[in-house]
Amino acid sequence: MVGTTIVLPLDVFSITPKKETIAFGLIADVHKDVMHDADRRLQEFIDRASQKNLDFILQLGDFCRPYNYNKDFLNIFDSYKGDKFHVLGNHDMDGGFSREQTRAYWNMPENYYSFDKKGIHFIVLDGNDPNPSPWSGYNRYIGNTQKQWLIQDLDRNNLPTIIFSHQSLELEYDGIANMEEIRRILEKANEKAGFKKVLCCINGHTHTDYATQINDIYYVQINSASYRWVGGDHKVVRYSKEIDEKFEWIKYTIPYRDPLYTFVQIKHNKIIIEPKTSEFVGPGPREMNLPDTLPNDPIVPTISGYKLTLKG
Asked: Which H or E element spans position 265?
């Protein structure tokens, strides 16, 4: 899917003025508390981002827990000289931490928020509100207070809008549990505006590579910087004995040899997602005889490159 061009039937011909370009970097699911070389992966992203003329960078969650020993990792992200933003992931509160503790550690002012860059409105959602019954396990919900904020935030402007979240608004079995309700809020905002104001929703969390559109809104899943989780029935020791003993969860994953991340450009009537490809460390899903995944949840060491052309 690398290098795919998709033409969306949207009623927006020019997102930005013809000579204006918005550029930003995205990295998802580094998992400092799982990967032995998470610092190296993040450092490569920051080095690449620092060489580009970006308007901001953003990490899409499952970044690091607020332990003192993770400070050097966080400092790598904070060393970026430009604007930088965080999304809360479900694993960032593992170990008994609250969202408030993690936000304070990251210097993240709010759980959910929005900002504008060069005539584009960006919204960051928090998919970690408490699950209502009967859902269990990790929180993957957007509650009433946040929903009302989202409606009001969309009402306050008529700018083309991009949504960031950790959990997917498209992959049903592992995404935001009330995703249909949230998607309807976005679709109603487009109906009320009289044009396709909400253009694209971008998430991490699923450690996969996929893009689709639902009711003229584009949904794209950004792959993990580090690995795909496969669980205890498929564990394989892929690194040294010393690494395996110190980082006990890696054996439950299929790691990517090189870090995955992407840079996105929004220019005139196009959203361009830069591709990046790695390879598996050790056996991949076929060699491991893993069961087939859903079509929108492939196990691949790739971030596909998409060119989303928005025509009126």
From this structure: strand 262-267
